[in-house]
Model the fold of this input.
Amino acid sequence: MTELKNKEWIDHPKNPLIEPSKFELIIADPTVLPPDKSKNGLWNLFAHSIFGIYHYKSRDGLTWSRGRLIKIFGIRPFIYSENEHYYLFYEKLKFIVPMTKILHSNLEVIVSQDLENWSKPKIVLQTKFAWQGRNIGNPCLVKFGKNKYRLYFASGIKWMEDCYFPEPKLMGYADSKNILGPYETVEQPIGDIILRPVNRNYGFGLNWYKDELGRNRSRILEMKSSDGIEWKTKRILLNPEGNSWRRTFVYMMGFATYKKEKRMYYNARDGWLFGRERIGLSIFNTRKK
Done:
C-alpha cells in the first residue's frame, strides 16, 4: 500500500477543532455541508456522541458553535442535499450492550428544508443477509445519473479487543430510484474497507489494521473505482501519529469543496480502552512543489 509521499493533505494547525462535551469521551464521524450548499450560508457539520447526533455551525469551518443535539440514539450520520431539501441519513441504535458484540441497528433518514426543523424518522434500510448480522450503519448516498441512488452502508461486527467495542466489518450497498427508497440491497458485500465515496469513481476509505505490536489501529485511504462497486486503494492519506490527539485511530471523514478548496473533516482517537475522540481538519494543498 503506497504511503502519501508529499504533503498534499495538510492538517490544520488548530487541530483538533471540535472536542467532545464535558461529560463525554467522543465526538465522531463528521459529515459536512459547505456554505454554498447551505441555506443559512454557514458551514454545517453533523457528528455523533454517545448520546446522539449533534449539529454544529461555523462561519469559517474552523471555529464551531456549541453542538445542538438533534437525534438521540443516532450515530454515524451522513448529510445529502438535493432540490433545496436536506436528507440526514444515520444509524439508529435499537439495542446495544456496551463493551460487548451485541449491537442491533437500522438505517434511518430525516428531512429538512432549513437545517433546523426535521421530519419524523423513516427507516430506509434494515439487515437482510447473514453476513450483516443485526447491525447496519455508516450510510453514504451517491447519485448515479438522473434517477438512481446508491446507498452505501457497513454491517457485521469487527471486535476491537483492546478497546472493548465493536466496529463495522464489511461494506455493502443498496440501490433505489428515489432518495427515500425503497432500496434493494445487493446480496454480497463488496469489501472490508469502510467506504465514503464522493462519486462513483472517487472517494475515501477507512482501513482497519494491526501495528507491529498487534494492536488495533485505523487509517484513511484514498480510493478509486470504475463502476462504484469494485474499489481499489490508491494510497494512504492519514495514519495515526505519535503521541498526538490521533495517536491510535484515524476514523471516518466528511469531504467538501468550497471556493476551489478541498476539505476533509475527520475524527481521531488518542488511546485504546480509555481514549478520547475529537474532530479535526485536513486541507488539500494546491501549491505546486
